[in-house]
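Researcher: Next entry in the queue.
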Amino acid sequence: MRRSLSATAARTVRRAVTWRPKVKGAATLDIRALISPLRYDVVIRASIFDHIAARPAEQSLQDYLDSSLEHPYAVWFREIEARRFRPWLLSDEAALRADYRERVSRAVATFASFSQRGFDAAYPVTLRSTRGPQVTDTGLTFQHNLHVGDGGHRLALLMRSGQQLLPEYYRIDPRPRPVLDNTSLLLRHLPISEDEYAAFVAPGYVQGPWGSTLDDLERAVGAQAPERLGEFGRIVQAHQEARQLFLSGDNHG
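Model: Structure for this entry, 253 residues:
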């Protein structure tokens, strides 16, 4: 997938100026807790691997690429990958589709490699570290010190296979970077039920049984982590407003 020359140059300069050595992982991390509540895109990436796993053996790669256009993964690619990192693609449908096909082809290859050899610790996931309350790129205050950086597809493969993120599977990049709220952006474009949303958010706030609805989850947060109840309420409200934009069809802003 191609970047513009100016974007590539700017990215190179930024990395050179802000470079700091990565730190080895020290603890085993629960992936579902790590991605809640801001990184629903990892759930979508896991679901494309479910889709790849169910691909008929006789189906050609070309036919599979065509069929994947109806998957939520195509929404992720357009609204997150392209809109945030390669916005020029949005004005060129042919280029957008070509880059999308390349991305899916790579996902197929990654799935095959993981299925045959498991996670390759030579290519660890990168997490970003922060200190204290952060403000996401969508304006939400969030108190958490580890965030997904690079390697979302490999993280999704581990999650769907029921594994956790072992210390040897990740490195921590201490450079300051914005905290991304991909969930807000995706909820504007995908049909996610309230209960599905609650199940996604829950691991980031509570442990053990908590019920099934957002009301159940709010009570559980109040009991287990009352100091985070305000944050939970603000994030859920913002995400529910994004869901309503999808339901109302007013999701083009």
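Model: The two ends are 26 Å apart (CA to CA).
Researcher: Noted, moving on.
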